[in-house]
């Protein structure tokens, strides 16, 4: 009997319609846990590095984490992995909702799709019965509405459906996959699903998921429930951290109405300018009224006591569900102060199935290109004159790939600019690895964020940060209070580092945390995300949260009681490091090198080129990677990945080159310098009001 | 017959607080697994959260008596602007909709209020306090409980009639 996992994957060849139920090797759970871990292994073994996103050989894997379907609170993540059309690397957008656990109850851990269907279809999984069904009548339907249409058609009200909208069907690079209130957004997996001609996957399952030691598991779950209850009744003080981070769960953007921090801290338009005096009492009153009216009910994902999403009923806008930062992203990009605009545009955006982080930025860049005359009168014909109308018009054009504007923007900021022959970074300036980033522009370089932005495989900062406060606390008394009740830390050194961290002076950014401390902190936070992504736990309850429910000292209790494994903390670290390094090797095989690990040039105003170089070099060495961001043979062998070292060497990727060995440079220059002039990009501009949060 | 006091358990359902997470289904099915907590499967749960998210319908329903056949079920209720079918509120395990029916055996499921426990598992694990346990005392006539043989005889009486049963027993005793 298999515990926690179903023990079977569904293999679907979309070209031939062949469907197979394949038993998985139990050893893989020991080596890679599940979810992202086992996905990476499948991609590494089966997808040749020359395969591109829209090639038939590209696999599209829908995965349930190892603990999805068990009673583990918030273990509901559906993880979609595929080669991204945007970055050319392996992407793994995730969504909460109800789909992953239903897949487990149907008896499967993953759905692995290869090749392309000759016509638009949807897949219906009902326990052992799996069908590929015609979806011609669903073409063009919204990603939300189609979920209900399929349930009705199947006469199966309890089926859970993941679906794409028009954006996915038309292979827009920012296409998401929607499931209930949740979206698997980053990287454009929705475009791959559309390319494979799969409109949706509906699942109904009525089988058991087994626990190795049920009573012990429930005992641990009770301790966890008490902690969640405690945190829900005792939010952290918001003196030093923003209010949406005071609780557990995804940031409570739907519940909190005070948006001073976002509106003044983040950048507006095409991530160009800060509005440091934006927020005032009148706005707070207006926005509170609009938000309170728009939110009909707070809602959750499967088996999660938190309420991070909401049912939105804003005026005449058709109903939809929203979560997190999507509440603000379109109004930031459009530079519209009226919150109602955001609630209105989110509805078509979710129905088209667009990523709420990338898409607003692409639209804002479109407006900039129009202002600079790159989009012509002819391109712009039919566009309303007001900015709100322009955004609705552009969104629609993009979803349909209509006209030059729609077709270009559908390829995202990077893709559109390259097709237009524009210099890299002039308009598509807020990218890492060709992918749009959160609209944040700050003053002083932050070593933790530098490393996170540069190196994380998700290419999305929220998937790396979380357990460490974003900024130091001003007063020592507050720091002392904060570290008192912080059992999540790996050891007491972390407490000292936090106590020492100052907003100004020697123990402040950019040189504190030191490179040594930064490496430990970033590696720890990344590991937590990788654990969550393997187990299928929402990062809002683990890795993306201050003082969360799950942490390095309790994950193993759930894993062991659920699976029958006997992992200790070191064993868990080794398992996720194994998958993490396999992931890195996979990206290296696809061409990723140090030159690609570059945060946006204008992300911080104050840059320290030589120190940043040393910081990253130190971190690579800490990770066991060489100076070109590739895991060394020694590191790979420590993680039982000798076969990967052989493969990388055979391909000429991993070389025994003394120039790639880290040589510490403790006398590195700490001089501030310009990143721009170094690259000769003098036309790259920083707006006048682009100033530091800390200066302000 | 003497009067005695019985404790009656009721679960109060505040559907307005429900966020549709279905933890109640998970813990119910885990608690009723054999051995206890060895597995879980919401399809075996004795509670089901009926959800139509876009219509703002989140309705926990407990499994009640089994019904041998589908009812007419023609009524629709509109409450606070939301439309419910009669089926929505029905507790019956019913072949017409496949709810509260054990997926393997096809036998009906029925909520037992987790008798013997301090409180039902669904109540205990609902952190949003959608489900609360209420207990009240009711004075009832003391029931004379039937023994095992009386149960058997009772069903024979129902099937054949008391007279026939008495005649049969009399005849059988003469033969001995």
Keywords:
heterodimer, A: alpha+beta, Aldehyde Ferredoxin Oxidoreductase,  A, domain 1, Aldehyde Ferredoxin Oxidoreductase Protein, subunit A, domain 2, Aldehyde Ferredoxin Oxidoreductase Protein, subunit A, domain 3, 3 domains, 25 helices, 23 strands, 13% strand, globular, disordered C terminus, B: 176 residues, 2 domains, two-stranded antiparallel ribbon, 5 helices, elongated
Structural topology:
The complex is a heterodimer of chains A (696) and B (176).
Chain A: E1 8-13, E2 18-23, H1 26-32, H2 36-46, E3 60-64, E4 78-83, E5 90-91, E6 94-95, H3 99-106, E7 110-114, E8 121-126, E9 129-134, H4 145-154, E10 160-163, H5 166-169, E11 177-179, E12 182-184, H6 189-195, E13 198-204, E14 209-210, H7 214-233, H8 260-265, E15 267-268, E16 273-274, H9 281-294, E17 295-299, E18 309-312, E19 320-323, H10 326-334, H11 339-352, H12 358-371, H13 387-400, H14 403-409, H15 412-419, E20 431-432, E21 435-436, E22 442-444, H16 447-455, H17 476-484, H18 493-500, H19 515-535, H20 555-563, H21 569-589, E23 604-606, H22 609-623, H23 633-638, H24 642-650, H25 675-678
Helix pairs in contact in A: 1-2, 2-21, 7-20, 10-11, 10-12, 11-13, 12-13, 13-14, 16-19, 16-22, 19-21, 19-22
Chain B: E1 3-13, H1 23-31, E2 39-40, E3 47-52, E4 57-62, E5 66-67, E6 76-79, E7 82-85, H2 86-89, E8 93-94, H3 121-125, E9 131-141, H4 148-160, H5 162-175
Parallel strand pairs in B: 5-8
Antiparallel strand pairs in B: 1-9, 3-4, 6-7
Helix pairs in contact in B: 4-5
């Amino acid at each position: 009997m298999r515990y926690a996992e179903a023990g079977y994957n569904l293999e679907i060849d979309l070209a031939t319609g062949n469907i197979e139920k394949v038993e998985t090797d139990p050893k893989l759970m020991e080596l890679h846990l599940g979810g992202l871990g086992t996905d990476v292994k499948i991609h590494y073994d089966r997808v040749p590095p020359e395969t591109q996103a829209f090639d038939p050989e590209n696999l599209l894997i829908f995965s349930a984490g190892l603990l999805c379907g068990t009673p583990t609170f918030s273990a509901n993540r559906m993880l979609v992995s595929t080669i991204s059309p945007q970055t050319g690397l392996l992407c793994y957008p995730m969504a909460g909702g109800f789909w992953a656990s239903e897949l487990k109850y149907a008896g499967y851990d993953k759905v692995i799709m290869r090749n392309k269907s000759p016509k638009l279809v949807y897949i219906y999984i009902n326990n052992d019965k799996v069908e590929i069904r015609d979806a011609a009548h669903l073409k063009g339907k919204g990603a939300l509405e189609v979920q209900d249409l399929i349930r009705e058609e199947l006469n199966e009200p309890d089926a859970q459906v993941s679906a794409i909208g028009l954006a996915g069907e038309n292979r827009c690079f920012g296409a998401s996959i929607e499931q209930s209130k949740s979206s698997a957004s980053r990287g454009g997996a929705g475009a791959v699903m559309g390319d494979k001609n799969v409109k949706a996957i509906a699942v109904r399952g009525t089988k058991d998921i087994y626990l190795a030691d049920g009573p012990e598991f429930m005992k641990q779950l009770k301790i966890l429930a008490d902690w969640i209850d405690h945190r829900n009744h005792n939010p952290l003080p918001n003196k030093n951290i923003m209010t949406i981070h005071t609780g557990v769960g995804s940031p409570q953007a739907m519940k909190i109405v005070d948006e001073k921090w976002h509106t003044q801290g983040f950048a507006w338009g095409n991530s160009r300018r800060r509005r440091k005096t934006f927020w005032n009492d009148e706005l707070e009153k207006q926005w509170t009224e609009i938000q309170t009216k728009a939110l009909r009910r707070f809602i959750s994902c499967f088996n999660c006591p938190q309420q991070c999403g909401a049912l939105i009923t804003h005026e005449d806008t058709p109903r939809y569900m929203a979560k997190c930062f999507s509440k603000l992203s379109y109004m930031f990009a459009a530079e519209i102060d009226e919150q109602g605009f955001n609630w209105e545009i989110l509805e078509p955006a979710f129905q088209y199935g667009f990523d709420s982080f990338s898409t607003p930025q692409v639209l804002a860049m479109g407006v900039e290109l129009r202002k600079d005359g790159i989009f012509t009168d002819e391109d712009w014909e039919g566009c309303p004159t007001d900015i709100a109308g322009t955004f609705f018009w552009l969104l629609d054009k993009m979803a349909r790939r209509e006209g030059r504007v729609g077709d270009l923007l559908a390829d995202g900021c990077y893709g559109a600019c390259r097709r237009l022959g524009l210099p890299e970074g002039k308009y598509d300036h807020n990218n890492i690895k060709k992918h749009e980033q959160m609209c944040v522009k700050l003053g002083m370089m932050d070593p933790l964020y530098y490393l996170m932005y540069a190196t994380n495989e998700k290419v999305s900062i929220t998937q790396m940060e979380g357990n460490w406060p974003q900024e130091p606390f001003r007063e020592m008394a507050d720091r002392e209070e904060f570290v008192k009740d912080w059992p999540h830390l790996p050891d007491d050194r972390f407490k000292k580092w936090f106590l020492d961290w100052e907003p100004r002076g020697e123990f402040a950014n950019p040189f504190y945390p030191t490179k040594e401390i930064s490496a430990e902190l970033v590696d720890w936070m990344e590991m937590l995300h990788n654990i969550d992504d393997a187990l299928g736990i929402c990062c809002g309850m683990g890795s993306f949260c201050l003082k969360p429910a799950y942490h390095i000292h309790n994950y193993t209790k759930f894993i062991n009681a659920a699976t029958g494994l006997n992992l200790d903390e070191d064993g868990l670290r080794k398992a996720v490091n194994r998958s993490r390094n396999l992931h890195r090797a996979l990206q290296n095989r696809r061409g990723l090198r140090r030159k690609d690990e570059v945060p946006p040039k204008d992300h911080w105003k104050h840059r320290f080129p030589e120190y940043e170089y040393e910081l990253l070099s130190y971190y690579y060495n800490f990770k066991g990677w060489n100076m070109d961001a590739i895991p060394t043979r020694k590191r790979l062998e420590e993680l039982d990945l000798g076969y990967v070292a052989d493969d990388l060497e055979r391909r000429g990727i991993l070389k025994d080159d003394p120039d790639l060995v880290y040589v510490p440079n403790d006398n590195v220059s700490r001089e501030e310098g310009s990143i721009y002039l170094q690259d000769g990009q003098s036309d790259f501009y920083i707006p006048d009001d682009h100033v530091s949060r800390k200066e302000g | 017959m003497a009067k005695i006091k019985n404790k009656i358990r009721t679960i109060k359902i505040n559907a307005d607080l429900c966020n549709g997470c279905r933890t109640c289904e998970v813990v119910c099915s885990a608690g009723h697994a054999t051995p206890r907590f060895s597995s879980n499967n919401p399809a075996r749960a004795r509670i089901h959260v009926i959800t139509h998210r876009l219509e703002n319908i989140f309705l926990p329903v407990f499994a009640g008596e089994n019904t041998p056949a589908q009812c007419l079920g023609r009524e629709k209720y509109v409450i606070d602007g939301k439309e419910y079918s009669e089926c929505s509120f029905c507790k019956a395990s019913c072949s017409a909709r496949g709810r509260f029916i054990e997926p393997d055996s096809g036998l009906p499921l029925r909520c037992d209020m987790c008798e013997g426990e301090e409180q039902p598992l669904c109540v205990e694990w609902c952190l949003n306090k959608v489900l609360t346990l209420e207990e009240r005392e009711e004075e009832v006539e003391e029931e004379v409980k039937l023994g095992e043989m009386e149960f058997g005889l009772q069903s024979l009486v129902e099937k054949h009639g008391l007279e026939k049963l008495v005649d049969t027993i009399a005849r059988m005793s003469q033969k001995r």
